[in-house]
Amino acid sequence: MMHAPSKNRTVAENGDGGIDGVLARSIGNREDLGPIVRYAFQCGKPDALLHQLSNVSKKKEVEIEELCKLHYEDFILAVDELRGVLIDTDELKNSLSSENIRLQEVAGALLQKLDELLELYSIKKNITEAIQTLKICVQVAKLCHQCNMHISKSRFYPALKILDSIEREYIQNIPLETLKKVIEKQIPAIKLHIEKKVCSEFNDWLIYIRGKTKEIGQLAIGQAASARQREEEKRARRREAEEQSRSGVGIPVYKLDDENIDEDSVLEFDLAPVYRAHHVHSFLGIENKFRENYYDNRLKQLNLDLQISSAQPFLESHQPFFTQIAGFFIVEDRALRTAGGLLSESQVETLWNTAISKMTSVLEDQFSCMDTANHLLLIKDFVTLFGTSLVRHGYQVKPLLEVLDKSTDKYHELLLSEYRKQIGDILASDTFEQMVIKKEYEYNMNVVSFHLQTSDTVPDFPYIAPFSSSVPDACRIVRSFIEDSVNYLSHGGHLNSYDVLKKYLDKLMIDVLNEALLNMIHSGTLDVSRAMQISANIAVLERTCDLFLWQAAQLCSLPLHLVERPHTGLTAKAVFSATQNAAYNALLNVVDSKLDEYLSLMNSINWTADEAPEHVNDYMNEIVIYLNFLITNAQQILPLDALYRVGVGALKHISDCIVAAFQSESLKRFNLNAVIGIDNDLKRLELLADEIFQSTGLSDLKNDRSFRGCLTESRQLVNLLLSNQPESFVNPVIREESYGALDYKKVATICERYKDSPDGLFGSLSSRNTKQTARKKSMDTLKRRLKDFS
Length: 790
Hints:
By secondary structure, the chain is mainly alpha-helical. Helix content is about 75%, strand content about 0%.
C-alpha cells in the first residue's frame, strides 16, 4: 500500500501526465474517447496514445490491486470484470489498431496533400512577396519608361518631375538592390543629359531669335507707322473740316472712328525653349546659373547688334540697325513679363542703357557728317518710329529724342541750303513776264491753291496773272519746306513745334527767298520790265506770308485763332515790304536811267535860239513815248499805289533834270526863246501827266498831289523865267504862292545865265520894245537882290 504513490509518480513521469489525467478522467467519467483518439492520430502520435492508454491501464491495475487488497472479494469480482474489460480492451486495441491502419491508409494521401498544401502556402507567400516586389519594380520601370518617353519627346520638365518622384517615393522602397543601384546611378546622368539638352535647345534658340529679331522689329515699327498714318489721316480730316468751316463751304461731317486699333498682327515668336530651360534649371536648383548664362549670351548678341558696318552708308544700314535693336528689346520685354524671374528689371534696364548710349553716340556721329536734309529726315523719321514702338513696351527713349532735337538746326540749315539752290534756279529760269494761264486746272494749281486770286469768280481763259512763273514755284517750295519741317518736328520731343517752324519759315522767307530777290534787285542788270515784275512778285509774296503761317499752324494742329491774333505774323512780311521798296527804288533807278538817255538829248537844244520853237523838243517826244509805254506796262503789272509811285518818280526825275539842265556847267547862257521851248515841253508833259492820272484811276486814290504836281519845280522855274516881273520872286508872299518849290541858290545861278537877247543885239537897246526892257530891268533887279541875299 505504501508503494502506490511511488508507482503513481513513476507512471506520471513515464508518460504525459497531462494527457494521462485527461484519459483517466475521461475513462473515469465514462466519456467518449473518440475525440482524444482522433486528435492523437491528427497529431501523428497514435503510439503515444497507446502508451498512455497502457499507462492508464497499469495505473488502473495498481488501483485495482489496492482495491483488491482492500476488497479481496470485490477484487475477485472486479478481476473478473477486469478480465472482461481486458478482453474488451484487447478488442478495442485491435479495433484501434485496425482503425489506425485504415486511418493511416486514408490519411496518407491527405497528409501528402497537406504537405503539398503547406508547400503551396509557402509558395504563395513567396509569390505574394515577389508580386509586391515586382509591383514596386514595375512602377519604377514604368516611371523610368515614361521618363525616357518624355526625354525622347523633349518634354524635360515632366521627366524631371518623374525623376524627383522616383527619388522621393520609390528609390528607398526598391527591394532589388541591383536595380536600386542602377537607378541611383542613372538619375544624375539623366539630369545631366536633360541639362545639356535644354542648354543645346537654348543655344539653338539664340541662333533662331537672332535671325527672328529683325522680323520682330520690322513688324513692330510697321505697326507704329500704321498707327501714325491713321493719326495723320485723322488730323488731315480735321484740318479739312476746319478749312470748310472757315471758308463756309460745306458742312463738316463727323463720324465714329470704327477702325480697329488692335488690327495689327500680333508679334509672334517662340520663347518655349527659354521657358523650358529656365524651368529645368530651376527644378535642378541651378536657376542662377541659367540666368547668368542667358544674360551673358543676350548681352553678347546685343553688342553684336550695336556694331555699325563702315562698309555700308548709314542711310542704307540704319533701318536694319534699329529694327534689330527694336526686335531685341521686344523679346527681352516679353521674357521679363512671362519668363517667371528669368530677368530682373534692373538687368533689362542695364541692357537698354547700354543700347541707348550706343545709339545716341552713333546718331550724333552720323548726323554730324550728313550733308543732305532728306537723308537726315529719313533717319529721324525711322528713329521716331523705333522710339514709338519701344515706348509701347515700356522703354524710355528721351535720350534719342534729345539727339534728334539737337539736330533740328542742322536739318533746317541743310534744308535751307537745298531750297536756296532751288529758289535760285527758279529765279534764274524766270523770264519775269506775266504768267499766262490757259486752263482752269492750271489756274487752280498756280493761283487758287495759294490764295493768289483777287476774286472768287473764275476768270475767263487765257488769264494773265499779275505775277510771273517764279511766284507759284516759290510758293510750292515754301509749302514743301513747311511740310518737310513739320515732318521733322513731328513725333519728336518738341513741345511747341509751331514756334520752331515759324522761326525757320522766317529764315526761309528772309534769308533765302528775300535775299535772292535782293541780289537780283541789286545786280545792276535789271531792265524796266524785269524790275517792274519783280516788284509785283514781291507784293504777291508779301500777301502769301499769312497763308503760309496759317498752313504751318494747321499742320502743327495749332488752333487758328491763336495765329490770327495781332503781332503773331511772320517777320518776313515786313521784310518783304522793305524789299518791295528796294525793288521800287531799283525800278525807279532803271526808269531814271532810261529817262536820262532821253534827257541827254537836251544837249542838242539851241539855248540861244533867235526864234521861239513852235513844237516840243525832240527829247520830249521820246520821253512822252517812253512814259506811255512805261505806264501802260506798269498798269498791267503793278497795283495802283505802285503805279502812282512809278509815275511820281519818273515825272519828278524829269522835272529835276530840266531844272538841272539850266544849272549845267556846260550851259553858259540861255535866252527867252529857249525858255519858251522848255515851256512847250512842260505843257506837253503836263498834259500827258493829267491824262495818265485820270485814265489809270489814280485820281480815285486821293493822293496828296497829282502827277502834274511832280513837275512843280520845273514849272515854277519856267514861269519865273517867263514872268514880266521876275523880281517878284523876292516878295515872300508871291514866292510862297507862285515859287515855293524854287531854291534861292538855284534861281540865282540860273538867272545869272539868263540873257533875254541874242549876242548881236545885247548892246543895242534901240531894237527892244518897252516890255522886254521892263522884263530885263526886273531880271537885273532880281539878280542883284539874289546876290545881296547870298
